[in-house]
Amino acid sequence: MAHADWREPVRLLRLSITPAAAHQLALATLVGCTLDADLPFNVATARLEEFLEPKIRGTNHAAAAPTERQMRFLSELCPNFRVRDESRAEISAWIGHCLALATITAHEKLKLKSGDVVQVSRSCRVICTAKTRPELTVVSSIGANGRVYLKGGNGAAAWPTEVQHQAPSGAVARI
């Protein structure tokens, strides 16, 4: 769902980064899975799924190890994160958590709304590459996941971490 400003997407993102829920902790205790109460909800979900999958399917395979690329990306997002024995799925959940935190922080700083003129610096999606191409455009809406949709259609969008205000709303009549 698209929103006219940053408030509702940030509220929804905050829900996704809450600590593990009581029902997750109860299930973990019931099945013998180690789950800390301060673990983020989505990370707790990934851990429970990894723990329960072999028991549900009747297989005895180990959880997939994180990839080097995941580890590099997580280390860029959260340099203080210390990996212990997390699985690929759990590291993916940690990456999602860190990205949600960055998205929330950027939205709270920018306070974007429809009609705002912004400059988008597109980063190449290759990890550890810092090539950018500045682009001036207008905010159309903001998705529930915090993605900033831009006028012009064709799926034009950027994350708020790639956006800077260029001028106050209404200062530029047309772009």
Write a concise synopsis of the structure shown:
With about 180 residues, this protein is of the alpha+beta class. It contains five helices and six strands.
Molecular structure report:
- This protein is an alpha+beta fold and 175 residues long.
- It has helices at 7-16, 22-31, 41-57, 68-77, 88-110; strands at 2-3, 117-123, 132-143, 148-150, 157-158, 163-167.
- Strands 1, 2, 3, 4, 5 and 6 form a 6-stranded antiparallel sheet that branches.
- A hairpin with an 8-residue loop joins strand 2 (117-123) and strand 3 (132-143).
- Helix 2 packs parallel to helix 3, helix 3 runs antiparallel to helix 5 and helix 4 packs parallel to helix 5 (88-110).
For the structure shown, list the relevant keywords.
single chain; 175 residues; alpha+beta; 6-stranded antiparallel beta sheet; 5 helices; 6 strands
